[in-house]
Structure formats: C-alpha cells, structure tokens
C-alpha cells in the first residue's frame, strides 16, 4: 500500500515539474504565415488544375474506324443461354 502511495506521489510531482505544453514551432506568427502560404498555394493549384482540365476537355479527340477482327479476341457471336442480355446488364429497354 505504501509503495502505491509513493508511486502516486512521484507521478504527481513529475506531472507538476513537466512543462504544460511543448510547442514545436518558434512562434505563433510563423504558424499564421505558413497557414496563409499553403492556403494560397492550394487555391493556385485548384485554379491551375481546373484550367488544365477545361483546356484538355475542350480539345477534340480522334475517332478511329472499326478495329480489325483479330482471331485471338474470341468474340462470342452465339446468343447466351439466358437471352440476348448479359447477366449483369440493365434489362430495361427504354
């Protein structure tokens, strides 16, 4: 019992001796500066990605003719046993 009380006393003494909070940065001003800097970088990245996506999507793309019938593709021309639709296709023909 005395050992437990001694441990408890040592823990409370160590808790009081330790600093309340350890700061990893040098000052609050640096934190605000870094936050503002990365916020600006984020917004610039969003604008850049949006503009690049709009440019890429606005360009046309080539359409090719029907590919040749390669013999190794094993295209199934026979109807499925359950009908013309695949098992996992939407069967509503609107």
Automatic annotation (TrEMBL):
One of its GO terms (molecular function) is enzyme regulator activity. The keyword Nucleus does not apply. It comes from the Eukaryota. It holds the Pfam family COX6A. InterPro entries: Cyt_c_oxidase_su6a (IPR001349), Cyt_c_oxidase_su6a_sf (IPR036418). Keywords: Membrane, Mitochondrion, Mitochondrion inner membrane, Transit peptide. GO terms for cellular component: mitochondrial inner membrane. Its main location: mitochondrion. It is found in: Mitochondrion inner membrane. One of its GO terms (biological process) is mitochondrial electron transport, cytochrome c to oxygen. Belongs to the cytochrome c oxidase subunit 6A family. This is Cytochrome c oxidase subunit 6a, mitochondrial. It comes from Dichanthelium oligosanthes. The lineage of its organism: Eukaryota, Viridiplantae, Streptophyta, Embryophyta, Tracheophyta.
């Amino acid at each position: 019992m005395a050992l437990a009380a001694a441990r408890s006393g040592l823990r409370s003494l160590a808790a009081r001796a330790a600093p309340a909070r350890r700061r990893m940065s040098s000052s609050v001003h640096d934190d605000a500066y870094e936050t503002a800097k990365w916020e600006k970088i984020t917004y610039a990245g969003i604008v850049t990605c949006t503009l690049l996506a709009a440019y890429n999507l606005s360009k046309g793309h080539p359409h090719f003719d029907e590919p040749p019938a390669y013999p190794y593709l094993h295209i199934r021309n026979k109807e499925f046993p359950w009908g013309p639709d695949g098992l996992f296709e939407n069967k509503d023909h609107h």
